[in-house]
Amino acid sequence: MSSAPAERSVLVRVPATSANLGPGFDTLGLALSLYDELIVTTTAGSGVDVRVTGVGAGEVPTDASHLVVRAIAATYASVGRDLPGLRLDARNVIPHGRGLGSSAAAIVAGIMAAKGLLEGEVEFSSSDLLALAAELEGHPDNVAPALFGGLTIAWTTSTGPAHKRLLVHRGVSPVVFVPETTLSTKLARSLQPASVPHEDATFNVSRSALLVAALVQSPELLHAATEDRLHQSYRASAMPETDALIRLLRDAGLAAVVSGAGPSLLVLGSDPAQRLFASDLVAEHGVSEWRALMLAVDLKGATVVAHPVENSDFLGI
Q1: What is this structure's pTM?
Q2: Fewest beta carbons less than 10 Å away: which of 211, 214, 229, 287?
Q3: What is the sign of the dihedral through the CA atoms of 166, 169, 170 and 175?
Q4: What is the pLDDT along the chain (317 residues), one digit of tens a residue?
């Protein structure tokens, strides 16, 4: 079946995400106000032309193996459409390999780009989008908040992944501390044991339930609600400075956790003043350089809009 007409262009914007949030391993995710933006334009003929500025420039592939292009191709294939020629202009801001959902953002960006390019010909439900994204990423905890924004609870059913989106209390004030070092998700996951003690599982069930209540209704409970026994201690050896800073911050009463697979760390402040306090502590005690990102909770998730073909770059945006 033929693809979308040539010379069509869309602008895609996708937020960073932080998964797990302490006890909510592979289940809870939060969208953050840090965005990758892409302009994707169909062209006559075949082949792809990828241009990247910002994070990953000169490092990520610029051919059909680029993750955004692969996600676009998978989305077209899922609805029986041939992939057109593509030009992709990416402006990346989300750090790579640091637990802020950069791969999930790329996958969601590709799916949303395909959705926009096929608008009027093919309709995608939210369930369709999540299923595609989770299949490509391998699990839904990062792709769900990237797609839908806010706080998401993600789970898998016999018919595929599902999610629930929740609004976060306006008092919740996130700050992410990003180190120079990276850590692969594959390595982080390899440090997890095959099983955990029953009491640790029970502990995390209680804290995960409490965390949802703390994020939605009672931010003053965030410190207790972000305690974890399922994954962070097992991964500590791979990111010793992250672990040391989290212990320091938690001892000071702050809700500090590993962001995703790490090595970035996330502090969920119950008010803006806690973010400044956390930043001072990290600046004073961090052995290496950490970049503090004072962020908000993203409420929209990924967006896609039509973009003028004759202006298919970022000039003037």
Answers
A1: 0.93
A2: 287
A3: negative
A4: 444 455 899 999 999 999 999 999 999 999 999 999 999 999 988 899 999 999 999 999 999 999 999 999 999 999 999 999 999 999 999 999 999 999 999 999 999 999 999 999 999 999 999 999 999 999 999 999 999 999 999 999 999 999 999 999 999 999 999 999 987 777 767 777 778 899 999 999 999 999 999 999 999 999 999 999 998 998 888 999 999 999 999 999 999 999 999 999 999 999 999 999 999 999 999 999 999 999 999 999 999 999 887 665 554 33
CA dihedral 253, 256, 257, 258 (to 10 degrees): -140
Q: Determine contact, residues 105/71, Cβ cutoff 8 Å.
A: no
Yes or no: say if 82 and 43 are a contact pair by the CB < 8 Å rule.
Answer: no
* Calpha distance 77→86 (Å, rounded): 15
